[in-house]
Design a protein that fits this description.
The structure holds three protein chains of three kinds.
Chain A: E1 6-17, E2 20-31, E3 35-39, H1 46-53, E4 61-66, E5 69-70, H2 76-82, E6 84-86, H3 99-106, H4 115-120, H5 122-143, H6 145-149, H7 160-173, E7 178-182, H8 190-206, E8 211-215, H9 219-225, E9 228-233, E10 236-241, H10 243-248, H11 250-255
Parallel strand pairs in A: 3-8, 3-9, 6-7, 7-8
Antiparallel strand pairs in A: 1-2, 1-4, 4-5, 9-10
Chain B: H1 2-33, H2 40-61, H3 67-93, H4 103-123, E1 131-132, E2 141-144, E3 147-150, H5 151-173, H6 175-185, H7 187-192, H8 197-223, E4 225-226, H9 230-245, H10 250-270, H11 278-292
Antiparallel strand pairs in B: 1-4, 2-3
Chain C: H1 3-26, H2 30-49, H3 51-63, H4 65-78, H5 87-112, H6 120-137, H7 142-161, H8 169-189, E1 199-200, E2 206-207, E3 210-211, E4 216-218, E5 221-223, H9 225-248, H10 251-261, H11 263-268, H12 273-299, E6 301-302, H13 309-322, H14 327-343, H15 351-365
Antiparallel strand pairs in C: 1-6, 2-3, 4-5
Classes of the chains: A alpha/beta, B mainly alpha, C mainly alpha.
Chain lengths: 260, 306, 385
């Protein structure tokens, strides 16, 4: 029964807040190696969907499975350990820590020395951290050399664009199998957006099997990167397909594109 | 047997009146600014000192005037002074830290409380000793069988009920109330639709602090002995009551206040050796609430915003 | 700049600090103390203005860290020799070191994990009472009392820490306040703790057969027992500083900071909050417990006075004054808040008022503390700061 191609499968997901149905029976799946675009007007339930998948919200009804395993009742920590990593719409870095520390902490789930060794094998602990710092700096450098040079800046001192970049770096070093990006291009100018798209494409090439879900308002991003698009409106999935099909869909135009 | 029960019930209601009035302040402050004002108990004891001082002055300067008027004027002055103290404390120790880590206002209001307390101790004549509240309400009262309802107790109870009704109308039926509620629900949005947020924050602190002043005045009337350091415990009890009732809910604060008073009074009366450690019981209740129902009796469940 | 010159700058400042402390403690004239205090504050402000000087000092601290720390330690070791004729000053110095231990422990919660804990003084009392009871009732030695206190305060650390999964910020503070009051009232009202009379006659520790209560002669100089106790406490402080800095500079410290800065992000990277918050409470409480034991055996008497709520507040003030999440800062904060009020005994009544005013001024003008924490530096990674 397990479909090998499907990485994530959310079936009939319902999320109620009091009387409000933020998600009303949506079915979404993500394949391996795929970039899925998730679009819809504000308040249509996109971010809520991310919160449900990552276990921050406990869904009212439905089922979510990841690589064939049911993750509906798992905690955010367990879900992260399975390989689902997300970024946040209003970036949620550890603001008082340096850029470098933020990325190093992204490697939290990877193998590391135990608490016991902090006391008795301190040198090993330090050399492990130094090695991870080097890896962190390397990935920062890949994204933006300028960011790598400023790697001791506290995250709160960064410009919005750089915060998002750091968030993506932090997510990547966690070795995700599924990466959820929540409006990564918000607040960026066209040049920066283009850089970001190149980054996403490059990441996809280097990480085999990685699935990406990207929530976006910027349609150029969706049309360039996303291979398949899902449209939400009022907590329901109203369309699915590739971007050229979606564009022509009447319901979608009314709900979303029609405004433009 | 039944008589002692009634007696304890009466005691707990008296205490509950004070706790509720303090707790309402906590809940109002938390509602509007999302802060817990750790010097609220010191507003309370400040008011006891202020009330006592003015009563003494009046009794010395104007002997023979009807005591009810004296009490009312002294209470009014205490409320206004404490209210302004509340406004000033907010401006100095809370407003500068609106955007910072919640650790900071915890510490700054706590320090403000310590300052108020120490100033009372140092500058009030013989401030470090226990003080006597002028005995102004005539003794006696209503006898129901063997059970005596003292005049001061009747005054306190009736006055508290009046205040509760006043608060209900203030919040539900006036513009001030609806604006405070609006700011409580969404600070940013309220300021965007043109509500003068700072002004209403000041109003709220004035109201909250003057409610604590009423409680402090009652404390003086009922227990007659008071000391500069009684504010800390009263504040913690009031905060506990507001948490038990549900921070943010005025009605919850009233319920929480009486619940805390019942637990404390009855545990002290009926558990052997309980009177010395009466506060332990109320704190255990708070701890249980914090662990099993942190949103309190009437509070809304807290959902982390993502 | 040459490395030798950096070392010189560092040593110069350390000597200056030592001189200020010694002079400040030596004089017992109120006006002179104020003068010295003013000079110290003046130097500090001067430093704050001269950015180049601060930069050099900062560089010295980083480049020559080990050497400077060693020299600082040497200076602390010779410090009591200045006060051989005044045992009371040595007593004050010991108290400063004991409070420093408790404050470094409190910083695990306040600085590293961002939880305000108003029960650290209570933990200190719990440690003190445990050892006092073990030593006076069962007649065990100081060392067994110490082990007992470490275990008991660790257990209470878990008990205090358990509600932290459900609560945060204000509610968490209320939990610790409730815990502090419950602990205080129970100890005050139970028979076997001595109630309001406390416990007297707590023995001085014995070290290699020497009792630290008597003075010993080394090469003709009579070394008072208090001084030996000073070195015992100093040893404990140094060991605990090493423990604390290893914890903070390892994964544990990083993870604590992540929990402090953003719990939701932490969750989404697989960090379980509960164990880390608990660890922060357990380590902090054990530090407080050890401080309590050292306190009880120093004074020889323990009562609820030494675990009153004002002690809790004092410890919190030490952490804020010195600088949260910075061990050196916290120690400086503790030493200042113990030593300075001792010299201003003539205005004893104003002491607590001054604490509170200082705290507010710090929060408004320098919330990061006297010595703010720095970002973690990795040896092989260069970058702008």
């Amino acid at each position: 029964m397990v479909d090998n191609k499907k990485l994530l499968d959310a079936r009939n997901v319902v999320m109620n807040f009091g009387g409000l149905k933020a998600l009303d029976g949506v079915n979404v799946h993500v394949n391996k190696n795929e970039i899925l675009g998730l679009i819809g007007p504000n308040g249509s339930g996109k971010t809520t969907f991310f919160n449900v998948i990552t276990g921050l919200y406990h869904l009212t009804d439905g089922e979510v499975s990841f690589e064939g395993e049911n993750i509906t009742d798992k905690t955010p920590q367990e879900i992260a350990r399975l390989g689902i990593i997300r970024t946040f719409q209003s970036s949620r870095l550890w603001f008082e820590l340096s850029v470098l520390d933020n990325v190093i902490l992204g490697m939290y789930m990877r193998e590391k020395p135990s608490l016991f060794s902090s006391f008795f094998k301190y040198n090993r602990v330090r050399s492990d951290l130094e090695a991870k710092a080097e890896e962190a700096k390397a990935i920062l450098n890949e994204f933006n050399p300028d960011l790598a040079n400023n790697c001791y800046k506290r995250a709160q001192e960064l410009a919005l664009v750089d915060r998002r970049r750091v968030e993506i770096c932090r997510a990547l070093v966690a070795h995700p199998k599924l990466l959820l990006l929540d409006e990564p291009s918000a607040g960026m100018d066209p040049a920066e957006t283009k850089e970001l798209m190149d980054d996403i494409k490059r990441v996809r090439k280097t990480k085999k099997g990685l699935g990406i879900v990207i929530i976006e308002h910027d349609m150029t991003v969706i049309s360039t990167v996303a291979e398949r698009v899902v449209v939400f409106n009022f907590g329901k999935k109203i369309a699915e397909g590739d971007f050229s099909q979606i564009r022509l869909n009447k319901e979608v135009r009314e709900a979303y594109l029609g405004k433009e | 047997m039944f008589l002692t029960f009634l007696l304890q019930l009466k005691n707990s209601i008296m205490l509950g009146c004070q706790y509720s009035l303090i707790a309402i302040g906590f809940t109002l402050f938390f509602g509007i600014l999302n802060v817990v004002v750790f010097c609220h108990g010191d507003f309370y004891i400040f008011a006891t000192f202020a009330g006592a001082t003015f009563l003494l002055i009046f009794l010395n300067l104007l002997p023979g005037i009807v005591s009810v008027i004296l009490i009312a004027v002294a209470l009014f002055i205490a409320m206004v002074l404490t209210g302004f103290l509340g406004v000033v404390v907010e401006k100095v120790t809370i407003k500068p830290f609106r955007k910072s880590n919640p650790i900071i206002p915890i510490l700054s209001t706590l320090s403000a409380g310590t300052i108020i307390e120490q100033l009372l101790k140092i500058f009030y004549p013989a401030g470090s000793n226990p003080q006597i509240f002028p005995n102004i309400i005539p003794a006696g009262g209503i006898n129901i069988g063997e059970f005596l309802f003292g005049t001061n107790e009747i005054v306190i109870l009736l006055f508290t009920i009046v205040i509760f009704i006043f608060m209900y109308f203030l919040i539900k039926k006036t513009k001030i109330g609806s604006n405070i509620v609006a700011i409580s629900q969404d600070f940013e949005a309220a300021s965007m639709v043109g509500i003068n947020v700072d002004r209403y924050v000041s109003i709220t602190f004035f109201i909250g602090a003057s409610l604590a002043a009423i409680a402090g005045f009652m404390n003086g009337i009922y227990y007659t002995v008071f000391r500069y350091d009684m504010g800390a415990m009263a504040g913690i009890k009031g905060f506990s009551a507001s948490v038990v009732g549900g921070l943010g809910s005025v009605f919850g604060a009233v319920i929480g206040g009486f619940l805390m008073a019942f637990v404390e009074t009855f545990a002290a009366a009926y558990i052997p050796g309980g009177s010395a450690i009466r506060d332990v019981f109320s704190f255990v209740v708070v701890l249980l609430f914090l662990i099993f129902r942190p949103s309190g009796i009437l509070g809304e469940k807290i959902i982390d915003k993502v | 700049m040459k490395k030798g010159k950096l070392l010189l700058i560092g040593v110069f400042f350390e000597l200056l600090l030592l001189a200020l402390i010694v002079i400040f403690l030596k004089i017992d004239n109120f006006l002179q103390s104020i003068l010295i205090f003013a000079v110290a504050v003046g130097i500090w402000f001067l430093l704050a203005r001269k950015t180049r000087m601060v930069e050099n000092l900062g560089m010295a601290m980083e480049e020559k860290r080990k050497e400077l720390l060693l020299i600082a330690l040497l200076m602390v070791i010779i410090l009591p020799f200045f006060f051989l004729n005044n045992i009371y000053i040595i007593h004050i110095l010991i108290l400063a070191l004991i409070y420093a231990i408790a404050a470094v422990g409190l910083d695990f919660q306040m600085g590293s994990t961002g939880m305000v804990n108003f029960a650290q003084g209570t933990m200190l009392g719990i440690g003190a009472y445990t050892s006092a009871l073990l030593c006076t009732t069962f007649g065990v030695s100081f060392w067994i009392g110490l082990v007992g206190a470490i275990i008991v305060s660790g257990i209470f650390g878990v008990i205090l820490g358990l509600p932290t999964l459900k609560t945060k910020e204000y509610h968490l503070s209320l939990v610790t306040i409730a815990f502090a009051y419950v602990g205080y009232l129970l100890i005050l009202n139970m028979k076997w703790t001595g109630g309001p009379d406390g416990i007297a006659g707590i023995p001085k520790p014995k070290l290699f057969g020497f009792s630290l209560s008597r003075s010993i002669d080394i090469g003709g100089i009579s070394i008072p027992g208090k001084m030996l106790y000073f070195y015992l406490v100093l040893l404990a402080l140094v060991l605990l500083i090493i423990v604390a800095s290893r914890l903070k500079n390892s994964w544990l410290g990083l993870t604590w900071n992540a929990v402090r800065d953003d719990e939701i992000s932490a969750k989404c990277y697989g960090i379980r909050l509960m164990p880390y918050k608990l660890l922060s409470f357990v380590f902090g409480s054990v530090f407080a417990g050890i401080a309590g034991v050292l306190y009880a055996h120093l004074v020889g008497f323990i009562s609820t006075e030494s675990m009153a709520f004002s002690v809790d507040l004092l410890l919190v003030a030490m952490v804020i004054l010195g600088g949260m999440d910075n061990i050196a800062g916290v120690i400086v904060g503790a030493i200042l808040l113990v030593i300075i009020p001792e010299k201003f005994r003539s205005i004893q009544d104003f002491r607590i008022l001054l604490y509170a005013v200082t705290l507010i001024l710090m929060l408004v003008f320098r919330p990061q503390g006297l010595i703010p924490k720095k970002v973690r530096v990795y040896r092989n990674i260069s970058g702008n700061r």
